[in-house]
Amino acid sequence: MTGNHDKKVILSGIQPTNKLTLGNYLGAIKNWVRIQNDYNSYFMAVDQHAMTARQDPEALRKNTLFSIACYIAAGIDTEKCVLFVQSHVPQHSQLAWTLNCFGYMGELSRMIQYKEKSAKTGTNIPVGLFTYPLLMAADILLYDTTIVPVGEDQTQHVELTRDLAERMNGIYGDDTFVVPKAHIPTVAARVMDLLTPTSKMSKSAVNENGSIFLSDSPADIEKKFKRATTDSETVIAFDSQNKAGVSNLLSIQSAITGESIAEVVARYEGKQYGHLKVETAQIVIKELSPIQKRAQELVDERTELNRILKSGAERAIAHAERTIKRVHERIGYVVL
């Protein structure tokens, strides 16, 4: 196993299907940076998952590289963590096929995200959309992962992974797979769409003015926050049910500054929504500017980024291959 054998393994990744958002940063990446020293950490850009929908090849390559660059620029230590692109490690696809043979049609058809996405896709539903939870399970099981940080909408996938691991452990031995646990980080922010604050901020939002992208200029960030939906009242208070827009801005500030919601609210006593919008924009710009600058430097100067990706792939493959060999021996393949 790469890293300290006494530490638990944590794994997480984000699809590079579009530009990363402030929601990706505050909800995932910033939390990865905070916890990276506590675990043997594996972080990746999950480009194979992106293929469940048609992708423009050049855009996918560009977004994948920029995603990895943002991870590094945000503070991921590439010496301590294994940072890689999913498609650079062929064992993900290898293990996914094995899990395809142990997963059941019924349990896959009950996956909430499959139901939602297939309803939008129409009649020509890609097989990959149906089976991608098995690839996600392979991602997790390959590295003997113990902790999977996820949002509430992803816990079902971790439960499926646990079921598959326990199913195969029951057939081939209790140590065939490590059975992972889902972890919903308490400090990770849930960032909502600026225009529709009852929905989560998304990379694929129909109206991009509701999303802050990590590639947005300071002027664009300020413009989007000034247009953010609030309500017809004038008091700045946290109430996610009745004041979703205002609460979203307060949450964003809290996630960046480390202040409690109550402390942020106290700063706005007697102030108006305009102050909240402008100051939230300023706080976000200050947080993102150095990340954007470093990420762009890494993308422009590909030598260092390529070195990091090659090293990360080699380290990931070393661990993944041990898992594949163990599984193949257990299920009866001829292992050389």
Describe the 3D structure.
This protein has 336 residues and is mainly alpha-helical. The protein has two domains: 9-189 and 302-331, HUPs (Rossmann fold), CATH 3.40.50; 208-296, Tyrosyl-Transfer RNA Synthetase. The protein has twelve helices and five strands. It has a three-stranded parallel beta sheet. Strands 4-5 form a two-stranded parallel sheet. Helix 9 packs across helix 10 (261-267) and helix 9 (244-257) crosses helix 11 (273-300). It is globular, with a radius of gyration of 21 Å. The model has no long low-confidence stretch (mean pLDDT 93).
In the CATH scheme, what's the topology name of the largest domain? Answer: Rossmann fold
- Could you list the spans in which at least 5 consecutive residues all have pLDDT below 50? none
The count of domains is 2
Topology as H/E string?
EHEHEHHHHEHEHHHHH
Quote the distance from N terminus to C terminus: 21 Å
Please list the strands of the largest sheet in the order they lie side by side.
1-2-3
Q: What's the helix count?
A: 12
Helix content: 40-55%
